[in-house]
Amino acid sequence: xxxxxxxxxxxLTPYGWDDAWAGAFAPxxxxxxxxxxxxxxxxxxxxxxxxxxxxxxDTAFVTPHDPLEVVCTGDWVAVEPDGSPRYVRTVLPRRTxxxxxxxxxxxxxxxLAANVDHAVVAVSLAAELDLARxxxxxxxxxxxxxxxxxxxxxxxxxxxxxxxxxxxxxVETSAPGVPVITVSAHHGDGLDVLTAVxxxxxxxxxxxxxxxxxxxxxxxxxADVMDVRTVRDVxxxxxxxxxxxxxLVLPGGGVLIDTPGxxxxxxxxxxxxxxxxxxxxxxxxxxxxxxxxxxxxxxxxAVLAAIEDGVLPQRRLDSYRKLQRENRRMVAQKxxxxxxxIRKQWKRQDAQAREAMEFKRGRWA
Length: 365
What we know:
Layout: H1 19-30, E1 34-42, E2 45-50, E3 53-58, E4 76-79, E5 86-91, E6 97-101, E7 109-114, E8 118-124, H2 131-144, E9 147-153, H3 161-174, E10 180-182, H4 191-198, E11 202-206, H5 213-221, E12 246-249, E13 255-258, H6 271-277, H7 279-285, H8 302-308, H9 314-364
Parallel strand pairs: 3-5, 8-9, 8-11, 9-10, 11-13
Antiparallel strand pairs: 1-2, 1-4, 2-3, 4-5, 6-7, 12-13
């Protein structure tokens, strides 16, 4: 197979290709493979945009045992130069990865998007705010390595300016250090700010069904690319209009990964992410009398003092405790599952070694 060299700037540049990716790909170029970015994954196959167009590729050669290592939308991969089908031969190391725990009881993680610069959490102002869910999304976003952004959609459905301002303030309190952008996709309000953010790399659009993600994606794309359905009147919830994760180039620069609405957003080893979301609690805890203070009943607790003084809302501490407990439980389950896998591997290796020894004894007997 002849070697292949690709300039740092190419048809892949709008998809996020840069000098660093070119450098990481160099060994694969020498082997004659072609670089590409995964724009959609579907049942063991994926659509990959390459320097000579979009191709359908099979992932059979990179099927891992760890579900977090499966090919994912946003991955940069090395594909064969020709063939039908063409095969993905390797996945380049990811810069970032947005991961949640699955709804199963097997303590497995599910990767939703890879190599993301901005995790855009869409929250509808037309529905009752679930601040705890916003904090949960943000914990996963911070943990992913991406920069989180909260977008409050459907602002036009809250015409009262005072009410809207209070809702925005509640979200800002729950998202310290995170930009909060109020948007009306129908009227165009706030879209210029979000467009500027999205132009700075790869953004993944996250949120529940009915949060207005598809409408928001269409507004950023400048065309009705994503299917949009109305929200149910009975409970204010939406139906899944996006069924796969798709990577799309934005006309204003940058790329967008649109995701299906997420009902379950379980934490997956998000210790640092939880700490980032509740950074003010961590700062307050530095003033506690005891270093291992649980902020429950200990004397000299600076966190409880802040609640009594009205500086810290009780709801924030309750949410912090809940996410901490969930994360500790998930980490313990994950570690136990890993230990069980290692034990199973050792037993399999021991059995193979015994079989090999018995075979040799049989030959030499």
